[in-house]
Amino acid sequence: MQSNISFALLATSLAGLSTIAGSLIGLLTCNPSPRFLTITLGFSAGAMLLVSFTELLQSGIESLGLTMAYLSFFAGILLMFMLDAFIPHVYMGERCDLHGGPGKQPDTDKERLTRASVLLAVGIIIHNFPEGMASFAGAIQNRQLGISIAFAIALHNIPEGLAVSTMMYSATGNRWQAFLWAFLAGIAEPFGACLAALTVMPGLNGAVLGAMLSAVAGIMVFISLDELIPVSRSFGEDHLSIIGIIMGMAVMAIGKLIL
Fold this sequence. Notes:
Helix 2 runs parallel beside helix 6 and helix 5 packs antiparallel against helix 6. Helix content is 83%, strand content 0%. The protein has one domain (2-258). It is mostly helical.
């Protein structure tokens, strides 16, 4: 069990810190391609949806039965809905221009842009906590499932890190400060995993794990449908978004068959 916990924490940490890769892309290019963002977000959504319905929820049903698994699934959706309602965050493509580096930003007061950048980062930090718990719960179930979830989360953390660093750099012109905020957004996921380990592990059994996996499925479905797919399509590349979703599902399915 100790080795499973260590692996789960490692997988979650790698998924969370993939925001660093996104921040480096943003700071080095300051002009990410809409096609790249569309494919990446769509791919991540497709991967999350397939894993949620074919592995997480299925595992919950096997442990708890249909009624309790479904209740846990919708509890996960409700949790994310409440977080989104009470702690909204500006997501890339919704209200921020990712193509406006320091020399191209519109006539916007820098103080307001900096505040918006901080709110973006803080919102992502808070929303990343349940994602860390999701990755941890999957990895505790089995390593293959943990890798699948961590991979899907990592893919959409890259654009998140890109969004945070690009907005902050546009506001301040300070690359180090932009990188730091993206890093803070990323480490929220390992903290979420540690919280899950401390609060859930002492009483972990088949029923608790089944409820966690079902709730995690709900969390990931909400993230996919409420954020990833709409934002992926917001760049005006609708067909690429669908292609990315299908590719994400296909890669997860092929990986499950191979492994």
